[in-house]
Structure prediction request, 147 residues.
Amino acid sequence: MKIILYPLMAALILGAWAVVPNSIEQAAAQQADDDEERFRARFSRIDINGDDAMTRGEYTVYRVATFNAMDNDRDGILALPEFRDRGRKPSERRASRRTKTFERIDQSANGSVERAEWDGYANRRFQRMDADEDNEVSFAEFVAYVK
Prediction:
């Protein structure tokens, strides 16, 4: 009985291990597909004419709209809660990342982000995304930047 069970158990264990790498690869592939879809959706919101190239003009429209959407009290200045929360309470991890970003943007260190600071940040960000310096950000450049 033991002689039969041990090989059977070994076969089951080895069979299970053979499935695990495949499952991991499938999960990684699915995550990559999900990321690609998410990145494509974000890029498409900025690429107004859908030509698969984000121009500085399209990015300007996006950055103005983003600032206005976050500026809840319409005073032309972003307070940390407006920037961090964006209408709903974020996870702790996201809130921490947004707080650090806010502090980088707030170059005057006065606890608020004025439109000029936001515009400067957005311009620097566009320049970093535009790896080939052709004044357009391709989808590939965008993905390389946001990953």
Observations:
- The helical segments are 2-46, 56-70, 80-85, 92-105, 115-129, 139-146.
